[in-house]
Structure formats: C-alpha cells, structure tokens
Amino acid sequence: MALGVLCRKGLAAVEREPAGRTKRVRLTAEGLEARQQYCKLTGKVERLWAARFGAGLLHPLQAALEAIAGDGKAGTSPLFAGLEPCPRGWRAALPRPATLPHFPMVLHRGGFPDGS
Hints:
Elements (H helix, E strand, L loop, with lengths): L1 H7 L3 E5 L6 E5 L1 H25 L1 H15 L47
Antiparallel strand pairs: 1-2
Helix pairs in contact: 2-3
C-alpha cells in the first residue's frame, strides 16, 4: 500500500528483474531528496525536543529504546523474540529475516506479528 503511494508521487520506481518474478524497488531522484529532507527534519525535531524537554530526559529514553532494539540483528536483538510467526500461518514457511525492518509499518489491515 505505501509503495503504491511512493510510486504515484514519483518518489520510488518498481522494476522487474529480467529473470523470474522478482521486483526491485529503488528511490527516484525525488525520493532520494525526500529521504535527505527526512533526515534533516528528524534531526531538527530531536533538537527541538531537547530544547523543550531537556536532553537529560531524551538521552535515557533513547538508551531504553536502543536496549530493546539492540543492533537489529537476529541473534542479538531482543525484538526478534516477538517476530516468531504463527506455525499455521503463511509466514512460517518464509526464511527467517537476518535484520529488523528499517521502517516497520502497520497498515489499517493489521500487521505481523498479530497473525495477519
């Protein structure tokens, strides 16, 4: 669903691999610019929050979140325990991911690991 929005806005392009059914998604020039703007914006938001709430409050929050996510790798991230698929679901037949998603997203239809 989100990929369709990105493509319609000209931020991403879907390309078919020459052999097989695989598709590849890449950011367009506009998408790369939007990603750079996102990084600038999140940095600005963090600075505004530090000014508003105090860095002393934000650093412990960041440390707590980093402890939960870990390094994002399968063997060391505590979050991977929550990604165990239902054995009767279609995701159980897929290979286990090696890293956590960089931009997890739950849509209006629900999302993994809630059994969807």
